[in-house]
Amino acid sequence: MNDTLTRDEIVAFLSSIAVKMRVAGPVRDGKAVEYRVSPPETFLFGDAISYKSSKEFYFPQTERLISFRGGEAISAEDPVPTVIFAARVCDLEALRVMREVFLNGRYKDPFFERRMRENLIIGMACVSEKPGCFCESLGLDMKFSDFCDVMLEPIGEDIFKVARLSVKGASAFAKYGLSEIECDNSRSARTSKPAIRLRGEMREAEIFGLVDWEEMLTACQGCGMCTYICPTCHCFEFRDVSEGGATDRYRCWDSCMYPRFTLHASGHNPRGTKAERYRQRVLHKYLYVMRNTGMTACTGCGRCVRSCPVGISVKRVAEALMEAGA
Ligand code: SF4
Ligand code: SF4
Question: Global pTM?
Answer without folding.
Answer: 0.93
